[in-house]
Write a structure and sequence with these properties.
Layout: E1 11-12, E2 28-36, H1 40-47, E3 60-64, E4 71-76, E5 85-95, E6 99-106, E7 110-121, E8 124-134, H2 138-168
Antiparallel strand pairs: 1-2, 2-8, 3-4, 4-5, 5-6, 6-7, 7-8
Length: 191
C-alpha cells in the first residue's frame, strides 16, 4: 500500500459534505480507502477466493461461493472467545471486478453490510472498504464500537495488501523443463 490514504470518509451513508444528514439515511457507515499496487482483477480474485481468506483475513472468514443472491458461511471472532461465531451471510452484490458485498445479522434489529468497491488507479486499485449498519441497534452499535470497527477495516486492508504483495513475488509454479538425455556417457564441458 504505497501512497496509502487511510480513513477518508467516516460517517452516515448519504451525509452531505457539511455534515447534514438526509431524512432517508437510516444506515451508519464506517469506511477505509486505500490504494493497492495490484490490478482491480487481481484484488477482486483475492477478495472472492473464500477458501484462501484464512491466509490473510484476520477477523472474518467466508465460506461458499461469491455468487450474487447466494449464501455463504460467515465466521468471526469476538474478544477472548476461543471459538469463532458462525452464521449465514447473504451475498448481495457481485460485479466483477468492481463491487463485492455481503450482509449478515438479524433483519430490523442489527444488519450489517461489508462492501468492497474497486476502482482502477494509476498505481493499481483504489479500494473503498466499508461497513454499513442498519436496524434498531445500529446507532448504539456504531457509537460503542466505531473506533474498533474502523481499526479492524484498516488492519484487514493492510492484510489484503500483504497478501497481494506476497502473491506478486511468488515464483512461477510451472516446472522448468530440462533437456532429455538419451543414454551415453555423461561428459562435463569445460569452457
Amino acid at each position: 500500500m504505497t501512497d496509502v490514504e487511510h480513513g477518508g470518509a467516516i460517517g452516515p451513508v448519504g451525509a452531505s459534505p457539511d455534515g447534514a444528514r438526509p431524512a432517508n439515511a437510516a444506515r451508519a457507515a464506517i469506511e477505509n480507502v486505500v490504494i493497492l499496487t495490484a490490478s482491480p482483477l487481481r484484488v477482486w480474485s483475492v477478495l472472492t477466493d473464500f477458501a484462501a481468506h484464512s491466509q490473510w483475513k484476520p477477523f472474518v472468514q467466508l465460506a461458499g461461493e461469491a455468487v450474487e443472491g447466494g449464501e455463504a458461511t460467515y465466521s468471526f471472532r469476538i474478544g477472548g472467545l476461543g471459538k469463532p461465531v458462525t452464521t449465514t451471510a447473504d451475498i448481495t452484490r457481485v460485479e466483477k471486478p468492481v463491487v463485492f458485498a455481503w450482509t449478515a445479522g438479524v433483519a430490523k434489529v442489527l444488519l450489517f453490510e461489508e462492501l468492497y468497491e474497486l476502482e482502477s488507479d494509476p498505481a493499481g486499485t483504489r479500494l473503498r472498504h466499508s461497513l454499513r449498519f442498519h436496524g434498531l441497534l445500529n446507532g448504539i452499535w456504531t457509537a460503542l464500537l466505531r473506533k474498533k470497527l474502523q481499526a479492524g477495516l484498516v488492519q484487514s486492508d493492510r492484510c489484503l495488501d500483504r497478501r497481494l504483495r506476497s502473491l506478486a513475488v511468488r515464483p512461477n509454479p510451472k516446472p522448468r523443463l530440462l533437456p532429455v538425455r538419451h543414454g551415453g556417457k555423461k561428459t562435463r564441458r569445460h569452457n
